[in-house]
Amino acid sequence: MLNKFKLIVFLLTVSFLLAFPLTSIAQSPEASGLTIQNTLPGNAKYPFKRLKEKIIYLLSFSQKAKFSYGKLLLEKRLSELASLVDSKNPAEITVAGQRFAYQAGILAENSVKGQKTVIDPIFSQYKTILGKLRDRFPANSAYWLSLQQDIDTLNILGAKLK
C-alpha cells in the first residue's frame, strides 16, 4: 500500500513538472549591467519568445526603430549567454553564443552612418563582459573557444564599421 502511494506521488510530481516547466531565471547578468531574462534557451517557452521578438522586429518599419530594437535584442542575447554561463548549463552555451554573434551581425549590417558611432562603445563593453565569461572556463576548452569566437566576431564587425 505504501509503495503504491509513493509511486502515485512520484508520477504526479513528474507529470506536474512536465506540464509546467520551471522558468530558468538569470543569475547574475545584472552584475554586468544587463537586464535579467526570465526565459532562457532550453526552456519550453523560449521558441515563443524568439518568435515574438522576430514579429516585433518585422513590424518595426523605420530604420531607427529596427536599430533600437536590434540593440535590445543583442543585449538580451548577451544576458542569456551570461545566465547560461552562471548556471553552468553547457548544453546551451554554444548555441546561445551563435545567436549572440548572429544578432551582432544583424545590428552592424542594418546600421547607418550615424548609428555606427553608437555601436562601437556597445561592442567594446560587450567584449569586456564576454572576456570575463570566457575566463570562467579552462583556456582552449570548447566553451572558452565559443566565447572567444563571439569576441572575435565583435572585433571583425567593429573593424568593418570603421
Structure description:
This protein has 6 helices and no strands. The protein has helices at 2-19, 46-58, 63-86, 90-109, 113-134, 142-161. The model is unreliable at 9-27 (pLDDT under 50).
Question: Which secondary structure elements does this structure contain, and how are they paired or packed?
Answer:
Elements: H1 2-19, H2 46-58, H3 63-86, H4 90-109, H5 113-134, H6 142-161
Could you provide a short overview of the structure?
The chain is mainly alpha-helical.
Comma- or semicolon-separated keywords:
flat, 6 helices, 162 residues, 0% strand
Based on helices, strands and strand pairing, what is the structural class? Answer: mainly alpha
Number of strands: 0
What composes the largest sheet? Answer: none
The gyration radius over C-alpha positions equals 19 Å
How many individual domains? 1
The low-pLDDT segments are 9-27
Shape: flat
